[in-house]
Structure formats: structure tokens, C-alpha cells
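Input sequence (249 aa), recorded before submission:
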Amino acid sequence: MADPVLEISGLVKSFGALRATDGVSLDLRPGEIHALIGPNGAGKSTLIHQICGTLRQDAGTIRFAGQDIGGLSVAERARFGLGRTFQVSSLAPEFSALRNVMLAVQAREGSSFRFFKPVMWDASLIDTAMAMLERVSLAERARVPAGELSHGERRQLEIAMALALQAKAFLLDEPMAGMGPEGSKSLTRFLDVLRHEAPILLVEHDMDAVFALADRISVLVYGRIIATGTVEEIRRDPAVRTAYLGDHA
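Predicted structure, C-alpha cell format:
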């Protein structure tokens, strides 16, 4: 079996008396989609923030591509190949979709955003960004300001930006949120292909998408992983049914 791309071991994060992350261990293997599910308030977003570096863990290790990244900044982790989309949009709303992706291309190359204007019409930069927009079926909206895109289009744009960073793994935080049935189906098909480019840690409430995509599922409840397994193993687990799945099982 190939070594994990992402490996989290014994992660702990407390806020006062509340232990939001309680000894969490999980990994992400090449070519797979590993879904992280759980009720609201389970600690999913807190865990993702630690993996990405916006929160520093109190204990435990985060290894990515064989390296301990626990001490790296958000930008350093992104340049190292950790691609993230956000539950709360991180786009520059006044910039076009194309310009947002161009910023991501520059970030990958180590350029500062303050040098964006002189190179904004660089042909190679535009071509690279347009290729990313085409992959997420957003090329026709390239010149539209991000703030004027629909919710689903903004999620597509975030994925294009993650692609522009040439990620070695994707962390997708509620990518289906706010999408209609057709949008969710389209994104599900895209993610099923994307996994072959880089594995995906998927935080998602849309259980139809989770069950269609996931190779493995980890269930987080009150900051702890209560089960990890295949779709069928999770469906059959009585503790998971009681804590979260209910009618979804």
C-alpha cells in the first residue's frame, strides 16, 4: 500500500474547557476520496483549520508528503501542495474570475500579490488561468467579477484556484453547500475525476455525494473519530447510525 499523502496523528485542540479536537488520527491515501462527516458542532471545521494552518494544534502531528508541516504557515502549506477550498468564500469579489485564478498561479510561483498589476496581461499567466477555468466549466464567465457569480460558480472558482496551485492533495470544505441538485451532480462527476490528479479530503453534509464518492469515511462526533471505514461499513455501524446517519443510512 502506498504511503499516505496526508497523515494526522493524535491531534488535539482545546478552547478553554472545550476539547474541540480530541486525539484525532486519520490519513489520506493516493487516488482516494476520504470523506469527513459528522453533526454540526462536531469539530470538522476546527480540524480543517488545523490541517491548513489557520489554527495551531495543541498536540499531535500533521505530516504531508512525508514532511511534518505543523510549524508551517498557511501560505507555506499551500505552496507545499495543500490545496483548500473554503466553506466561507475567500475570493476577491471585485476581481474577475480570471484574475482570481491568476493570483493563485502567481502565489504558486512565489510572487507577491502586490506585483500583480504589471504582469496581469502576461500571456502565459492568462493561458494557465484560463485552462483552470475551462476544467471547472467556468471559462465563459472568466471576465465576470467573482462577487457577481452564483454561489455554485464561486465554488467552481475556488476549485479552479486550488487546481492552479498544483495541489498534491485537496481539502474541500462543504463544496456542495448551496448548490441545487444539478450543480451537485455535476460537481460530483468532476470530483470523481479530480481524485486521480490528487486525493481529496472531503467535508460534506450531502450524503448522496459522500456515498457516491467516498472510498473511506471518517465520522467525527464531539471532536472524536468514532468510526472509519468504507461506505457500507459506515452505513452498518450502529454507533454511526445513532450519532449521525439516522435516515441517511
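Checked by second reader. The beta strands are 6-15, 18-28, 33-37, 59-64, 67-68, 82-85, 169-173, 200-203, 216-221, 224-229.
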